[in-house]
Amino acid sequence: MRVALLAGGTGGAKLAAGMQEEIGSDLAVIANTGDDVEALGVHVSPDPDLVTYWLNGEIDAERGWGIRDDTFTVFERLKRLGAPSWFGLSDRDLAACLYRREFLDAGGRPTDAQAQIARGLGVEARVLPMTDAPVRTQVITAAGPRALQEYLILDGGRPRVEGVRLEGIEAAEPTPEALAAIAEAEAVVIGPSNPVISIGPILAIPGMREAIAASPAPVLAVSPYVAGAVVKGPTDRFMEGIGRPTTAAGVASLYAGLIDAMVVDEGDPDPPPAEVPTLAAQTLMEGAAGRVRLARTVLDYAATLAP
Amino acid sequence: MRVALLAGGTGGAKLAAGMQEEIGSDLAVIANTGDDVEALGVHVSPDPDLVTYWLNGEIDAERGWGIRDDTFTVFERLKRLGAPSWFGLSDRDLAACLYRREFLDAGGRPTDAQAQIARGLGVEARVLPMTDAPVRTQVITAAGPRALQEYLILDGGRPRVEGVRLEGIEAAEPTPEALAAIAEAEAVVIGPSNPVISIGPILAIPGMREAIAASPAPVLAVSPYVAGAVVKGPTDRFMEGIGRPTTAAGVASLYAGLIDAMVVDEGDPDPPPAEVPTLAAQTLMEGAAGRVRLARTVLDYAATLAP
Questions:
Q1: Of A144-158, A167-181, B23-37, B84-98, which gets the smallest average pLDDT?
Q2: Residues B65 and B201 in one domain
Q3: Could you tell me which residues are beta bridge partners of residue B138?
Q4: Mean pLDDT of A160-189
Q5: pLDDT level of residue B302 (50, 70, 90 thresholds)
């Protein structure tokens, strides 16, 4: 089954890893690039790279991000030279971001840079940036707008979120590769990532919702809420910030009109409204087996929805 | 004694290390930037960095270049992603070059980048790029012009040299810092580096010879020939390429009209002509003691020449 999976941070990336086990190169992950940031002289693309390291098995699975057992030699040295140190990068992680910067500076597309990175690192599935245009997610707080990584790292994700602004989104368009992946998909899956800052930017690209709606494939969302709480990350802060309930029902409200069905946790206290076909399942992805199990659940459910 | 030392590769850098032991922050090294190259997405400045690592003691002294016991994690990773692999950089070395690129991209001067690198790495002397303008040394061979690093690394320094071209030299000027170091010097010393591709570019900058000539300080050159042969590097190839004898006399001919005196090896078979005051001494720099001994010899000799 060919799948186009929309993903941002850890939850979506873990589901991608499980799906790759099941369908290999039939998986295309469309990844959020609103978190991209220039730091330390390199171009960091946190979500596409996170997905890549989950897919090639180098991820520090216990921590949920970063490359396992990587060193920080260059970063430590840069700090000694006086470089800003708020954004840390391990050596192998930095290498990809340096490669990307050089690739982009030479006029290349983010899509081709990411494809080259994924290929070099032995990833079977495709990892597709949502757009080749620069989109930067900004968090509106009482103190003013903050770039997302600055909000998460420098502010510790603490200030109350009053809204989200996606800089550059009007001029962005989905890549031909992302559009093709959606058009050819037999299922479009919205991964269990932060609906506001991970999935939100993908769906906000002009033409993206339309492309998904035009696909004959069923569209499923997997709720990031497990037993009523998020496993990791500041999802609640952002759901509150845009005035939605911090529940699966709140997530469903964001995807209304776009999804055909939803997979929620079997322990969810606030499932989507009755008009959304919903499968309640065990959605916590513990270990490789847990990731594959959820992937299998989603794929099997999608098969029952096929037109 | 305040010294301005012109230096390029290993010989000049070793003498710089010896001089720093003797006069500390009274030493200013004016370093060749004609070898600079963009590689792996960073800005490599081989001679200033080589001098820096000799001065802060991190140099792999046995090999004569590179940082001792450094790792190649980022470089190996870049190769895996498909980056060109002809120019290798170890992790700490790459960090400085990445820092420099970011510094320059932000509109900073090479002089300030190098000062920051040297400060961060605990160097006592000043390391001054010869100019802030881009100068690129090209080697003319039968097969056409080659960038210097490509000639040395890709061609293995083998093709016959027919000449040297210094791209950008007409528009270059000495930095205010280099001019001040020369004006304030009590001795200007031309280090035992390759006279054609290390010292040549420094002296070719419009205004540099004039600044040295205008200084009241004595100007001494230290011959890179030890017992009639170069210790390391392709000096002979380049001396032949521009039609000069591969001897101390050949070196003297290049500095004619500029130097007041010369230090040559006591075993030199072809010393400078009689009109050049010459001190014959042991010029091989073996270990830290050898570097300090030659530095002391040069400083003492300069003191006898002071106006």
A1: A144-158
A2: yes
A3: B147, B165
A4: 97
A5: very high
Average pLDDT over residues A154-167: 92
Q: Is there a single domain that holds both residue B123 and residue B184?
A: yes
| Residue of B40, B101, B120 lying closest to A80 (CB–CB) | B120
Q: What percent of chain B has pLDDT over 90?
A: 88
CB–CB of A94 and B105 under 8 A?
no
Query: pLDDT class for B143, splitting at 50, 70, 90?
Result: confident
Q: What does the pLDDT look like over B111-142, one tens digit per residue?
A: 999 999 999 999 999 999 999 999 999 999 98
Mean pLDDT for the stretch of residues B176-189: 98
CATH of the domain at A280: 3.40.50.10680
State how many domains chain A has: 1
With CA atoms as reference, report the closest residue to A135 among A51, A53, A36.
A36
Residues B143 and B106 in one domain: no
Judged by average pLDDT, the poorest of A16-25, A31-40, B156-165 is: B156-165
Is the domain of B158 the same as that of B67? no
Supply the range of the domain harboring residue B147. 136-167
Q: Are residues B60 and B24 part of one domain? A: yes
Of all residues in chain B, the one with the smallest CA distance to A102 is B41
Are B21 and B142 found together in one domain?
Answer: no
* Domain membership flag for residue A98: no
Question: Are A116 and B82 inside 8 Å of each other by CB?
Answer: yes
Coil/strand/helix, residue B175: coil
Judge whether B85 is closer than 8 Å to chain A, CB to CB: no
Across the range A142-158, mean pLDDT stands at 89
Is B288 within 8 Å of chain A by CB?
A: no
Rounded to a whole number, what is the distance in Å from the CA of B51 to chain A's nearest CA?
A: 16
pLDDT in tens, B65-83: 899 999 999 999 999 999 9
Mutation target vs B (from A40, A45, A67, A99; most B CBs, 10 A cutoff): A99
Q: Are B116 and A78 a contacting pair at CB < 8 A?
A: no
* Predicted model pTM: 0.94
Residue A148 lies in a domain: no
Q: Is residue A77 part of a domain?
A: no
- Mark which of B167, B183, B214 sits at the end of a domain: B167
The number of CA neighbours under 13 Å toward the Cβ of B26 is: 13
Q: Are residues B111 and B141 in the same domain?
A: no
Pair (B79, B157) in one structural domain: no
> Chain A 163-222, CB below 8 Å of chain B: which residues?
none
| Size of chain A in residues | 307
Residue A66 domain-assigned (yes or no): no
Residues in chain B: 307
CB contact under 8 A, B95 and A117: no
A-chain CB neighbours of B101 within 8 Å are 41
